């Protein structure tokens, strides 16, 4: 794998003399210089609004914004007008849950490994049931088909990759299997897109959402993709400038896709940064990225399955899981929060502790004390995983044998 250290300015930062070891990419990724420059370049050299004017700057800004949309579209293999820029994955999911036309008593079947962002939007308008008896193991195609046939939901909302333990649901097989069962399929690809190839033309889902900021893009970027006929029937959550072709005293006419779903001034610099993130990701050979992430996952399995004082939450197989792992403290008197804070303060190892926006999963396993999550990405090395383990061991050492 090409050395990327120099590309990420944050990795040059030290805290108390320690270089930062960033293992919190499942929350948000670091940004390479190319992304920072693209976002700053908007403010520095373009600066105008999009779709509003015919001045030189406005046209140039619009041209760049639409080029960014086409870049996202080519990355996931779709048409540009099916790519809706959003604030983040949560907002994109909310747009689907609130925008789908519903009658009374509509039902949503939600994968049990879901993040709150693929649960709460559904609960607001739908009767929700979970599918997946073991939230930290991949769904089986059979259990999903059984649940769909038994309960006849209108929507099946699946989280592709768990943000708790990096397990991967077989979304392609599931979407293909339920295709003819009359259910709208929605895929949360927030943790998948940083690591896996996402090809919406091959994936037989109806909607797919993801965050730009977890795949090296700027904060405040996300994407909603939908099949044309599905996006067209989505009711816009918010109307206003940018969404309408004409307005009179009695009504309005919506603009075509995707503009009807992008109210107001968008995050223009963010979109340009996201396109730069895609260019950056595409500059690596796909196999290299896959091999590198497999080496991170294998190191996670090797080192944490035998580390004294912590236990991996749920199954973790370095050969099949993405490099996201949650660790439960097994030492009396030392909580996940204390561990996270201690390794941050002592060794500048940045992780995340808590319930990871997945309270039902922690409730299911009665682990409400939470876990320290370690999530690695292309700028991490197996050596950093070992340094994180050393830092954890040092943090726990005074508590052993108490
Ligand atoms: N789904 C999953 C699986 C996630 O991990 C996250 C972020 N932690 C989200 C959705 C929400 O993403 P965003 O912060 O972009 O709204």
UniProtKB/TrEMBL annotation:
Keyword DNA-binding in record: no
Q: Where do the Aminotransferase class V domain residues begin and end?
A: 21-385
Does the UniProt entry include the keyword Transferase? yes
Q: Which reaction does it catalyse?
A: (sulfur carrier)-H + L-cysteine = (sulfur carrier)-SH + L-alanine
Q: What keywords tag this UniProt record? A: Lyase, Pyridoxal phosphate, Transferase
* EC numbers for this chain: 2.8.1.7, 4.4.1.16
In the record, the note on similarity to other proteins reads:
Belongs to the class-V pyridoxal-phosphate-dependent aminotransferase family. Csd subfamily.
GO molecular function terms here? cysteine desulfurase activity; selenocysteine lyase activity
The opening ranks of the lineage are: Bacteria, Pseudomonadati, Pseudomonadota, Alphaproteobacteria, Hyphomicrobiales
Q: Which cofactor does it need?
A: pyridoxal 5'-phosphate
List the InterPro entries hit by this protein, alphabetically. Aminotrans_V_dom, Aminotrans_V_PyrdxlP_BS, PyrdxlP-dep_Trfase, PyrdxlP-dep_Trfase_major, PyrdxlP-dep_Trfase_small
Q: Where is the signal peptide?
A: none
Kindly provide the name given to this protein in its UniProt entry. Answer: Cysteine desulfurase/selenocysteine lyase
Give the highest taxon in the source lineage.
Answer: Bacteria
**Pfam families membership:** Aminotran_5
């Amino acid at each position: 794998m090409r050395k990327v250290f120099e590309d990420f300015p944050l990795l040059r930062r030290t805290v108390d003399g320690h270089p930062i070891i960033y293992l919190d990419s499942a929350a948000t990724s670091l940004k390479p210089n190319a992304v920072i420059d693209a976002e700053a370049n908007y403010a520095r050299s373009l600066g105008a609004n999009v779709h509003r004017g015919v001045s030189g700057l406005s046209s140039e800004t619009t041209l760049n914004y639409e080029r960014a949309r086409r870049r996202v579209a080519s990355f996931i293999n779709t048409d540009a007008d099916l790519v809706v820029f959003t604030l983040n994955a949560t907002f994109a999911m909310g747009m689907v849950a609130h925008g789908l036309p519903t009658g009374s008593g509509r039902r949503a079947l939600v994968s049990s490994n879901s993040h709150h962002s693929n649960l709460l939007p559904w609960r607001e308008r739908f009767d929700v049931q979970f599918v997946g008896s073991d939230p930290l193991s991949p769904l089986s195609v059979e259990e999903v088909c059984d649940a769909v046939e038994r309960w006849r939901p209108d929507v099946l909302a699946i989280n592709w990759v768990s943000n708790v333990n990096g397990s991967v649901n077989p979304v392609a097989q599931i979407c293909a299997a339920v295709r003819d069962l009359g259910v709208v399929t929605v895929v949360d690809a927030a943790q998948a897109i940083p690591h896996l190839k996402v090809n919406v033309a091959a994936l037989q889902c109806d909607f797919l959402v993801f965050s730009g900021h977890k795949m090296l893009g700027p904060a405040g970027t996300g994407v909603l993709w939908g099949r044309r006929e599905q996006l067209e029937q989505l009711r816009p959550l918010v109307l206003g400038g940018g969404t309408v072709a004409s307005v009179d005293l009695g009504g309005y006419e919506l603009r075509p896709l995707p503009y009807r779903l992008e109210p107001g001034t968008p995050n223009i610099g963010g979109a340009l940064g996201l396109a730069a993130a895609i260019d950056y990701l595409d500059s690596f050979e796909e196999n290299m990225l896959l091999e590198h992430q497999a080496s991170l996952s294998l190191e996670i399995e090797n080192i944490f399955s035998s580390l004294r004082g912590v236990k991996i939450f749920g199954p973790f197989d370095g050969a099949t899981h993405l490099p996201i792992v949650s660790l439960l403290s097994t030492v009396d008197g030392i909580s996940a929060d204390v561990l996270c804070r201690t390794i941050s303060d002592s060794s500048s190892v940045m992780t995340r502790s808590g319930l990871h926006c997945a309270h039902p999963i922690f409730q299911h396993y009665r682990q409400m004390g939470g876990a320290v999550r370690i999530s690695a990405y292309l700028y991490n090395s197996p050596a950093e995983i070992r340094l994180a383990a050393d830092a954890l061991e040092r943090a726990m050492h005074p508590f052993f044998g108490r």
